[in-house]
Write a structure and sequence with these properties.
The structure holds two protein chains of two kinds. Chain A has a single domain, classed as Rossmann fold. Chain A contains five helices and six strands. A six-stranded parallel beta sheet of chain A has the order 2-1-3-4-5-6, sandwiched between helices. In chain A, helix 5 links the parallel strand 5 and strand 6. Chain A is 38% helix and 22% strand. By secondary structure, chain A is α/β, with parallel strands linked by helices. A five-stranded parallel beta sheet of chain B has the order 2-1-3-4-5, sandwiched between helices. By secondary structure, chain B is α/β, with parallel strands linked by helices. Chain B has two domains: 137 residues, Rossmann fold, CATH 3.40.50.2300; 55 residues, Winged helix-like DNA-binding domain superfamily/Winged helix DNA-binding domain (Arc Repressor Mutant, subunit A), CATH 1.10.10.10. Chain B is globular and about 50 Å long. The chains are: A alpha/beta, B alpha/beta.
């Protein structure tokens, strides 16, 4: 299934890591990147992705606020937000889901959980995973 | 011959990003990846990389102590420190530890290649802010690189700093003993010495000390914002 993905994180190196991982999946396309919530709102409008992979702690506008505002966009009904964050806390996960996110992944385990999470949320299924022990990468 | 680079960062997604960035450069290869400082030290001893890139905020052994241990083992190791903050204290400690490069994580995509190239050419690489601080210290003819001198704290040994980090991360004396391959009794002796030297009275005090002195780093959650009345068209 083709999935158009927007990456939102203030660290380019993290976006690069996410991109490397996601572009390995046939049919998935990273259509754009944003470095904060404000830029994310603009790119949601112009690029119309299926899934927004969204960090929480960012300058200008954090991911929770951006997530709430994305939900208010007229064309947001088919779009899903997957939060990928350093915050390994049930309270933050609840906040993210309350803000309208469909998925929640902890950054320390993003490499393991991300593909499964994007697949789930792109099919409008809930995906949540807290931290598990880390693994090696490239 | 290829330049061999060892990466140490506890986030696999960051290591993937760093790998992708570094491996685009002809003549460089990532020869190993470590997910904490202790693993980085062991891998560096085995792999003997030309450059080691270490994140500061790693579990079990932070990047500053990793740098110290690497250079204690072999002063020829070339270490680049990756950090999320360039506070005076972090800069001072990174320089004291012997790092030859200092790169902000937020600028890694832009600066890291330049930093590795600098070390490859036997030069150093620092952010403009580090350069300013070093220059300010030189102009003041002082020994410090910053106007804000840290308080004169009793010096912990390398082992005591390791024990402090592991205790501050929430490990019991028994767990610390397992990680460091020591007896529980030895760890408890270190613990008593640390508390006495620093005049601390509880584990809570120890955690506060560890945070203030960059032995562990914590990520503050954003201030929770309730839904606004704003409507986005």
């Amino acid at each position: 299934m083709a999935v158009r993905i927007l990456l939102v994180d203030d660290h380019p190196i993290v976006r690069q890591g996410l991109r490397t991982l996601l572009e390995g999946r046939a049919g998935w396309e990273v259509v754009g990147e944003a470095s904060d919530g404000v830029e994310a709102l603009d790119k949601v409008e112009s690029l119309q992705p299926d899934v927004v992979v969204l960090d929480i702690t960012m300058p200008r506008m954090n991911g929770l606020e951006a997530c709430r505002l994305i939900q208010q966009k007229p064309k947001a009904s088919s779009l899903e937000v997957l939060v990928v964050t350093q915050h390994d806390s049930p309270q933050m996960m609840r906040e993210a889901l309350d803000a309208g996110a469909r998925g929640y992944v902890v950054k320390s385990n993003a490499a393991r959980d991300l593909l499964e999470a994007v697949e789930a949320v792109s099919q409008h299924r809930l995906f949540t995973a807290m931290a598990r022990p880390p693994q090696a990468s490239c | 011959m290829k330049l061999r680079i060892l990466l140490a960062d506890d986030h696999e997604i960051v290591r993937r990003g760093l790998c992708a960035l570094l491996q685009k450069h002809e003549g460089w290869e990532v020869c190993g990846e470590a997910s904490d400082g202790r693993e980085a030290v062991e891998m560096a001893k085995q792999l003997k990389p030309d450059v080691v890139i270490v994140d500061i905020g790693m579990p079990h052994l932070n990047g500053l102590d990793t740098t110290r241990q690497l250079l204690q083992h072999d002063p020829n190791f070339k270490v680049i420190v990756l950090t999320i903050t360039d506070s005076d204290q972090i800069i001072r400690e990174a320089l004291d530890a012997g790092a030859r490069g200092f790169v902000l994580k937020s600028d890694a995509a832009r600066d890291l290649v330049s930093a590795v190239e600098a070390l490859q050419s036997k030069r150093m690489f620092f952010t403009p802010r580090v350069n300013d601080l070093v220059l300010a210290g030189f102009l003041e003819k002082g020994h410090a690189i910053s106007r804000n001198e840290p308080p004169n704290l009793p010096t912990l040994t390398a082992r005591e700093r390791e024990v402090t980090q592991l205790l501050a991360e929430g490990k019991s004396s028994k767990e610390v003993a397992t990680v460091l391959n020591l007896s529980t009794k030895t760890v408890e002796t270190h613990r008593s010495n640390i508390m006495r030297k620093l005049s601390l009275h509880s584990i809570r005090d120890l955690v506060v000390y560890a945070i203030k002195n960059n032995i562990i780093q914590i990520q503050m959650p954003p201030q929770i914002q309730r839904p606004t009345e704003t409507t986005v068209a």
